[in-house]
Amino acid sequence: MLLFCFTQKYSACFLSKILFRTATRKSCAKTSFYGSRLLHRRHLSQNKGLQSVYAQNDRFIPLCSNPSASDLAKLQKFLDMHPSIFVLTGAGLSTESGIPDYRSEGVGLYATSPNRPVQYVDFLKSSQIRQRYWARNYIGWPRFSSFQPNRCHYILSDWERKGRIHWLVTQNVDALHYKAGSQRVTELHGSTHRVLCLSCNYRITRHAFQTMIDEANRNWSLDIPTVMADRPDGDVDLDSDVIKEFVVPPCPSCGGILKPEVTFFGDNVPKTVVHEVLEKMFQADAVLVLGSSLEGAGNFRPGESKGGEESNGKLPHKAILQE
After folding, report:
1. Could you tell me how far CA 291 lies from the centroid of its own chain?
2. What's the domain count of the chain?
3. Is 251 annotated as a binding residue?
4. Which of 85, 94, 111, 183 could potentially form a cystine with 99 if both were Cys, beta carbons 3.0 to 4.6 Å apart?
5. 200 labelled binding-site residue
6. Please, which residues have CB within 8 angstroms of residue 134's CB and are 6 or more apart in sequence?
7. Would the annotation count 152 as a binding residue?
8. pLDDT digits over 143-162, tens only?
9. How confident is the model over 161-175, as pLDDT tens digits?
């Protein structure tokens, strides 16, 4: 079987053009892996029209050069040859919707802030860390939940309706694929739109939990300063003095600890989810990776190959979840 990995960084506007032109054709006999870093990026052309499309959210998009005709032809050929694909999407797919990622040079959280995501073990053991997390999340939620899908989300949704996508797995927790209309989706790291009790598995929507927080903090929010910084998981940066009076509601069913139904750093993706993803992947005839380097924490890695090179080799019998 053919293993193909491509790791260039492209602007979403170029990706979407190629996706729109791709037609459903008969599958070839070989199985391919297309591991691409087709991230949403600000390109360097002088095309003012394309620049204006993404101007509103381009502060989170690192610079990159235009894709070459040869590179686009490789992608087009790959898509033409495989009518039923398994798609894996990462943070790069949502940056042009206005959601920053963690690792992008110059614009990601790690490059612009000394703060780091909360670790799962710390969230469990420290009530102060949970208080800080939920206070920031509470203030950031109205904006984070209002983000809308961009063109690539809608293209993938359209592909699903046309039968081109066997299954889509996303590392993102923003629910933008669902907002765009996709249904055949597995959220590998969960979703910020759901809240889970760690003791009794009671579940509530994030919007409903926002109302619970409102009721528990009727006066607290009046003292919140307006200076805030966006974070990839929906939080904002707040001064520690502001957080001290914040009240975190307990589980309404058992009084336990509530957390977003997402995989925190240091936590593990549930085995049932891993098995589901593996099953869906090997039912497809090819894998397309969008908006992920396949190098970060929690990445689902269906295969190994050197970037930009073709190699003959078998896809592994199992994929790897790197935590």
Report:
1. 8
2. 1
3. yes
4. 94
5. yes
6. 213, 246, 248
7. no
8. 899 999 998 899 999 999 99
9. 999 999 999 999 999
